[in-house]
Amino acid sequence: MTRLSRLPPRDLEALSAYADGRLSAAERQALDARLGSDTELRTALDQIRATASLLRALPSVRPPR
Predict the structure, then answer these.
(1) How far apart are CA 47 and CA 7, in angstroms?
(2) DSSP string, the chain
(3) What tens digit of pLDDT does each residue of 3-57 get?
(4) b/e code 17-36 from CB counts within 10 Å (16+ = b)
C-alpha cells in the first residue's frame, strides 16, 4: 500500500486537485499521462478518493452555540 506521506507535497496537491476537478485541461492531461504509468500515483489517487468518499458519508453536525 502506498503511504501518502511518502509522496512529494506537489504530487499530493496535484492528486487532490485532480480528485476535486480543480485542474486545468492541460494539468489534467499531464497527470493522466503520469497516472497511466505510475502505479504508486494511481494507488495514492484511489486512497484520496476513498477518504473523500468516507468524509462525505459522515453526518452533518451543527456546532454547539
Answers:
(1) 12
(2) ---GGGS-HHHHHHHHHHHHT-S-HHHHHHHHHHHHH-HHHHHHHHHHHHHHHHHHHSPP-PPP-
(3) 888 899 999 999 999 999 999 999 999 999 999 999 999 999 999 999 999 999 9
(4) ebbeeebeeeeeeebeeeee
The span from the CA of 2 to the CA of 39, in Å, is 9
> Can you tell me which residue has the cell 468516507?
54
C-alpha cell of 3?
503511504
Question: Is residue 1 within 8 Å of 43, Cβ to Cβ?
Answer: yes
